[in-house]
Amino acid sequence: MWARWLALAATIWTGAYVAAYLVLVRHGGNSPAWWYIGLLAIGVAPLIVTVAGWLSRLALVASAVVLALAMLVGLLSIGIFLLPSAVCVIVAASLMKPTSRTVSGVG
């Protein structure tokens, strides 16, 4: 249950980050880097799936990797503000119990 709440918090935080990024870039008279927005969307997609109820540790790990990459790419501007999202996703992934699957005929 906590994993879903943390994924929701990371989704909301990342959405607010995107809004702030767009406002700051447009205020500076520049156009936003749409590839960066796409990278963030790729990082949020697994979170939305997790919030919808399809819990997957692999999805959370993938999201954490993409959000951490986006944070590093944007570190010279406002990228550090993605840190809470990445931390929430890492904690959510660590809280999930690994699924126990048995192979037919074994175990």
UniProtKB/TrEMBL annotation:
What is the superkingdom listed in this entry's lineage? Bacteria
Residues that span the membrane, as ranges: 6-24, 33-55, 61-92
**Alphabetic keyword roster:** Membrane, Transmembrane, Transmembrane helix
* Full protein name: Uncharacterized protein
Cite the source lineage: Bacteria, Bacillati, Actinomycetota, Actinomycetes, Micromonosporales
